[in-house]
Amino acid sequence: MISEPVRYSEVPLTRETLPERHAAFAGQYSFTESAILARQARRESNARSYPRKIPLALKRAKGIYVEDVEGRVFIDCLAAAGTLVLGHNHPVVVEALESALRSDLPMQTLDLTTPAKEAFVEELFSLLPAGLASRARVQFCGPAGTDAVEAAVKLVKTATRRPTMFAFQGGYHGMSQGALSMMGNLGPKRALAGSLGGVQFLPYPYAYRCPFGLGGEAGEAAGISYIQNLLGDPESGVLTPAGVLVEGVQGEGGVIPCSAGWLARLRELCTEHDVPLILDEVQTGFGRTGKMFSFEHAGITPDVVVLSKALGGGLPLSVVVYDESLDKWQPGAHAGTFRGNQLGMVAGLATLRFIRRERLAEHAEAMGLRLTAHLEHLAKDHPCIGDVRGRGLMLGVEIVQPEQLDARGQPRAGSERASAIQRACLRRGLILELGGRHGSTVRLLPPLIITEAEVDRVAEIFARALADVESAARGPAQA
Question: What is the C-alpha separation between 458 and 370, in angstroms, rounded?
Fold first, then answer.
């Protein structure tokens, strides 16, 4: 880690940041941003979310940069919710797709195999820990990670013949009905008059706002003891589950990492009670946290791994990888029309090979430490920053109201201030997202190819946006 924050870059974001390649293609669509956004608001579902907070109409993108139809250039620290680990239109992905299209490779094949699919599976298995790869089976699922979560749940319920699941408070696993039933966030569930039953929610180790009011190792130990009691006490009132579904770093829940020791102990409990452990690596997988998979920080081997996002190199693709002992379901037990997306496999293969060859997991760890150092330095001078956390290039900054304390004596969530910071960052050319309790955590998910200079630029924009918001809060008389 750098000992002191480096001098921030003053290089402005301009159209020159992006190359002119494909300008002719972009020119086919000539609309003003206000017109496009107005049409989107009129035509698209009320369920749309991102455009409400990031009102942009994008025209071109390259690397970590995107350009809107008005010619403004932004650093993209959302990257399709972490999907674009190589950024936009990376040359290795573009070349792979162009080659595939010229070769007349079939675009969709259902479960039928192809040389492209075989090469993709070989590469995927080669990235898995040896203990899992040697016993692994893979199920290709529908385009999104939520379908792979559904498949994983069906898999373990079929294998164990148990009807219930364990999930964690703050967890996020997708928006389908089954995945929603294992989500911590109550918002999407309220309109559904309840979700699918049979899910027991467990406390996740959240050091800054520990559910037991303890924090640190004591809080983690209390959580493990609670889970141990549920699994081992014949009077607990809770059935042994078909599986335990967990994230190594909770993403949408506020970028909350569990410790290696906590996850290792959870693995031990699952083994002791013959409960399959499912790691949702949809957002954390493929280098994002500084390891190829987040569970590698704990040195464990899960029974089931759910993968999507970066897996397809930016194209829709999801899989479940699992231990062969669980392969009890019958043909057709899980299916989907687009599970044979060959272009996704081609793009995914190019991406996975590049991640390995260029050691992007290690790079993500180094860039994450650099960005964390900047953010922690800012926290010393800005009391509204309650916590800086995460792993690799999956970072969160929890914004609080330091002048308002809750019943536990902790600062209340700074939801409005976090939204103001997000808007100020956007005005200054930085796209990022919010998450966590009350939407008070600023989330940073840049592509893994981000450079030191670009990390410093992100920190500089964030610092200035923070100053903008605090100045506005003080008012003109005190600014």
Answer: 11
